[in-house]
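Quiz preparation item.
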């Protein structure tokens, strides 16, 4: 069968560097760090006392107070990003077939704050018996953001969320891409959201020694590809993409940002939390995406890398890129936008796919910030263009976004300039 073409017609985001797409993109190009001292709780006794928080978020713009109380913060962020994307795409659902419009929206962790609060209340009030909020479970579960968005707009197509740690929303994007190109849906609201800057979120990652502890300089703590990197910076937020079948988009006169042309998935099959040191799964996932897109390596211009600023992860991804792309690797721009946003966990893939789409649309690559001369790692090849500290103008016809998750889950998406 002939596969349908899939395009992106709307974008939405709420991030540590902006509460909408325009602000987020502007600050990404300017190299603005979203990191600062944690304000969501008293972190003074924690090894890590900073994070990339969303600032000045007002959920009342999207839901009334009664409805908002039924949502964990991660779901509120998801709803906000979806409303921006739907408005950006100028969707009038009354004129469309809601049976063929879906929502696939992910979280790697979901309502961890809700879980903390409910369990803490129970164990400090046991004399009252098993007393829980009736919204405890629906606030906590990691698929519920998709449910909220679907219900809000009456969208009856495919509706769920994939859970694969930090690869979650990239897996959602690939699944949505497949549903549309196979003709099973006309349009899917795709995205990811996370709000795990909580006591157990930060404490748990601290126990794994996964987070940076650069408390004296939070804004420079996320430093991918630097020798002095000491872990990732946890972030929160959401990003949403409107994936649409091409003819459906053209029929309603939609604006088209880019075309989705390929997706790849693989497993490291190596370790619960560490990436394979030789990047075996990373090599396979990029090759799978290129094969799916029917692209030669020389057709790619930019890679938004997973690049979390961890000692093992960064060099293994670079090794994988060099092996997959060969000499063409030196013609690529490579950057880690996590240096600015921090690591949004299950929302990272959606946000970084958005950055890749905007790079393709605007022919500019956002930077990897916080690298300084003299902080070179012998395991990193600095002849590669890692787009250090300053955005770079160049033609970006095609871009790939990598995401790798705990459990060895790997996923990547390729987007290209749209041409009829």
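Solution:
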């Amino acid at each position: 069968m002939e596969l349908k073409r899939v395009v992106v017609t709307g974008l939405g985001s709420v991030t540590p560097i902006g509460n909408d797409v325009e602000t987020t993109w502007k600050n990404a190009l300017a190299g603005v760090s979203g990191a600062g001292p944690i304000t969501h709780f008293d972190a003074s006794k924690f090894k890590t006392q900073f994070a990339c928080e969303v600032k000045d978020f007002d959920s009342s713009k999207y839901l009334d107070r009664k409805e908002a109380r039924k949502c964990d913060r991660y779901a509120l962020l998801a709803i906000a990003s979806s409303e921006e994307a739907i408005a950006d795409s100028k969707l009038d659902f009354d004129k469309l077939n809601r049976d063929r419009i879906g929502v696939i929206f992910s979280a790697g962790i979901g309502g961890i704050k809700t879980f903390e609060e409910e369990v803490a209340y129970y164990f400090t009030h046991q004399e009252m018996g098993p007393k829980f909020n009736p919204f405890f479970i629906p606030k906590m579960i990691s698929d519920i953001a998709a449910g909220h968005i679907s219900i809000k707009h009456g969208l009856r197509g495919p509706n769920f969320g994939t859970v694969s740690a930090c690869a979650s929303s990239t897996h959602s994007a690939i699944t949505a891409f497949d549903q549309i190109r196979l003709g099973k849906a006309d349009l899917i609201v795709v995205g990811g959201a996370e709000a795990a800057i909580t006591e157990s979120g930060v404490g748990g990652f601290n126990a794994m020694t996964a987070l940076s502890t650069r408390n004296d300089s939070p804004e420079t703590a996320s430093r991918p590809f630097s020798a002095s990197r000491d872990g990732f910076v946890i972030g929160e937020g959401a990003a949403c993409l409107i994936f649409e079948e091409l003819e459906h988009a053209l029929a309603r006169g939609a604006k088209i940002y880019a075309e989705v042309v390929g997706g790849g998935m693989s497993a490291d099959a190596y370790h619960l939390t560490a990436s394979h040191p030789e990047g075996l799964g990373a090599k396979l996932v990029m090759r799978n995406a290129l094969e799916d897109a029917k692209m030669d390596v020389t057709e790619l211009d930019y890679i938004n890398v997973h690049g979390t600023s961890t000692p093992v992860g960064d060099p293994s991804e670079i090794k994988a890129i060099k092996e997959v792309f060969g000499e063409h690797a030196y013609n690529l721009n490579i950057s880690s936008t996590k240096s600015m946003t921090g690591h949004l966990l299950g929302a990272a893939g959606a946000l970084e796919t958005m950055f890749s789409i905007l790079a393709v649309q605007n022919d500019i690559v956002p930077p990897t910030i916080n690298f300084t001369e003299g902080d070179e790692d012998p395991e990193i090849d600095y002849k590669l263009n890692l787009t250090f500290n300053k955005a770079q103008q160049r033609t970006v016809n095609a871009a790939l976004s990598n995401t790798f998750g705990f459990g060895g889950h790997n996923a990547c998406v390729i987007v290209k300039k749209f041409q009829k």
